[in-house]
Amino acid sequence: MAEFLSTKPYKGSRDFYPEEMRSREWMFSTMSRVVESFGFERYDAPLIEPLEIYLRKTSEEIVNQQIYSFLDRGERKVAIRPEMTPSVARMVARRFSELVKPLRWYSIPNLWRYEQPSRGRLREHWQLNCDIFGAQDEFLADIEILLLAINLLKAFGANQEHFRLKLSHRQILNQVLYELLSLPPESWLPIGRIIDKKDKITVAEFEDLLQKEGLDREQIKTLFSYLEEKEDFLERHAQWSSAHYLLRILKFLEDMGVRPYIDYDPAIVRGFDYYTGIVFEVYDRHPENRRSLFGGGRYDELTGAFSKEKVNAVGFGMGDVTLEDFLKTHGLWQTFPRKTELFMALFGEEELIVHSQKLAQKLRDHGFCVEMSLNSARLGRQFEEAHRKEIPLVLVIGSEEYKAGLVLVKDLNTGEQRRFSEEELLRYLKERQKNLK
Ligand code: HAM
Fold first, then answer.
1. Residue-wise pLDDT tens digits, 341-367
2. Which among 86, 209, 228, 304 has most CB atoms closer than 10 A?
């Protein structure tokens, strides 16, 4: 006997059955609605990019361990996109001079990373990317991105009990490493990467990595005290422009009334090399799901990899997997019934069937979703099919209705049956639709 093929999707990837697709569409349309309300416009880019766009400035972990890359048939090194930021930087750099800045752009791409699948981590995910390019006043762009991040979660019904946005600034860390630890610029990125891993490793492992990077006991102690201290540190170093800047952001957000959503957290670094300013991660506060939901930051140098014009940029990526976990954890996930509201049963002679098909088309032309039966033999079965599919209204044109120019409508929720002329039916359905809204 022939072996059957597996019906499972590829490891770490998902199928979306229709009921799951309805929730996914709700998620994506909520995202679009919120970001478009801030004036963002949608763009897209190819799934496959030249590998090199990820090599210049990216996350070491992604390039060394997670990228899906291969040689195409023309021997070009290409990669399936693990993130959207290099693609959008490429697009902006390509048409920089003709684009009217600032740009507020968003996309919801499917991204691929070769990860060990676990809760919140898969090999593919969808990621809302929101980025602002070329703002005159970078401070206002940073504020807008942070407000957008908070508003997105609020639009899904979340509040300050559910999440926190943890905020820091890359230059503050650099300044700490330079001024307080006397470390040269070459060591800033590697140490940043180690701090980024801090939550995933033990304290001993963390110290060990720092030692390997050349830090002595005293330097490690200073670094620890910086990572543990809260806003007092910023106040004491307000002469540093980065610390001053972050204090200004926090004050602005306080005046906007969203300060309860924000924590200053010096341990937030983010694992990408391209960040140059604010960096943030949004965390779930639920004890069973204390994980990062999404993150982003300012990256002013990335377009410089593609052209001599550097465009300042700030944005974030919000993944569907972590968002779904978060919404489910807090009882905010939604499921939806099918959209189809009418089931056209078929019955009797071919002439009747043609007539029923015509009526179905007329109803579709009026904007109704009509599912046509594919079973013209057994009426009882057809009612059962509509019932199991949770379609509320069944239409039948039997020979009597046909002769009288009528349609029988059965409401499966109430059991009520009525006969209408086509005009009455349209009026009835429109009225019903209005009442359902
Ligand atoms: P990222 O932190 O790598 O940033 O990803 C952003 C979010 O995408 C994560 O917080 C998580 O929600 C989701 N995500 C990432 N990898 C996975 C995975 N393997 N499985 C499930 N979800 C995942 C970036 O990608 C930056 N390019 C974001 C950005 C945009 N920065 C500025 N603009």
1. 999 999 888 999 999 999 999 999 999
2. 86
Residue nearest atom 2 in ligand 1 by C-alpha distance: 295
pLDDT of residue 437: 72
CA pair distance 375, 311, nearest whole angstrom: 61
**CA of residue 293 to ligand 1 center, whole Å:** 9
Q: Does residue 121 have its Cβ closer than 6 Å to ligand 1?
A: yes
Nearest to 295 by CA among 307, 277, 283: 283
Find the 434 Cα to ligand 1 centroid distance in Å: 41
* Residue (of 162, 198, 144) closest to 283 by Cα position: 162
Q: Answer yes or no: is the C-beta of 274 below 6 A from any ligand 1 atom.
A: no
Residues 195/269, Cβ–Cβ less than 8 Å: yes
Would the pLDDT of 221 be above 90? yes
pLDDT in tens, 33-64: 999 999 999 999 999 999 999 987 777 788 88
What are phi and psi for residue 167, nearest 5 degrees?
Answer: -120, 140
Residue nearest to atom 14 of ligand 1 (CA): 319
- Is 322's C-beta closer than 6 angstroms to any atom of ligand 1? yes
Beta bridge partners of 291: none
Domains and CATH numbers, the chain: 342-436 (3.40.50.800)
HEC string of 358-418 equals HHHHHHHHCCCCEEECCCCCCHHHHHHHHHHCCCCEEEECCHHHHHHCCEEEEECCCCCEE
pLDDT band at 1 (very low <50, low <70, confident <90, very high): low
Q: Is the CB of 315 under 6 A from ligand 1?
A: yes
Distance CA 244, CA 172 (A): 10
The CA 9 to ligand 1 mean position distance, Å, reads: 22
